[in-house]
């Protein structure tokens, strides 16, 4: 049941099914001091008909992350020409 609820929430979020609470909209895009794409702009950059391996991280990428990406792209259930999308949960790291 939990898996179904998670799936249903994801389907509502991506706009395949209507949200039972009504249309969800934002007031404005957040203002940032670094460039940031909208979800639609990110989706537009992904290859059509190819698998996408998505990884969300909160820390800077390190060697273990890189190995995880490479091995996941080589998994038997991932199609030829798949891409890896790394999504940080925050902006650029401080120097």
Care to give the gist of this entry?
With 95 residues, the chain is α+β, with helices and mostly antiparallel strands. It has helices spanning 2-13, 39-45, 63-73, and strands at 52-57, 83-88. Helix 3 (63-73) links the parallel strand 1 (52-57) and strand 2 (83-88).
What can you see in these coordinates?
The chain has 95 residues and is an alpha+beta fold. It has a domain at 28-88. The protein is built from three helices and two strands, in the order ααβαβ. The chain has helices at residues 2-13, 39-45, 63-73, and strands at 52-57, 83-88. Strands 1-2 form a two-stranded parallel sheet. The radius of gyration is 16 Å and the shape is extended. Residues 1-12 have low confidence and may be disordered.
Please describe the structure with a list of short key phrases separated by commas or semicolons.
95 residues
Write the layout of secondary structure elements.
Layout: H1 2-13, H2 39-45, E1 52-57, H3 63-73, E2 83-88
Parallel strand pairs: 1-2
């Amino acid at each position: 049941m939990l898996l179904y609820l998670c799936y249903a929430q994801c389907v509502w979020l991506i706009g395949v099914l209507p949200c039972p609470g009504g249309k969800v909209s934002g007031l404005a895009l957040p203002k940032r001091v670094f460039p940031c794409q909208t979800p639609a702009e990110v989706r537009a950059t992904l290859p059509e008909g190819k698998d996408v391996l998505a990884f969300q991280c909160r820390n800077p990428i390190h060697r273990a992350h890189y190995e995880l990406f490479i091995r996941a792209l080589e998994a038997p259930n991932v199609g030829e020409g798949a891409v890896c999308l790394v999504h940080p949960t925050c902006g650029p790291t401080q120097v």
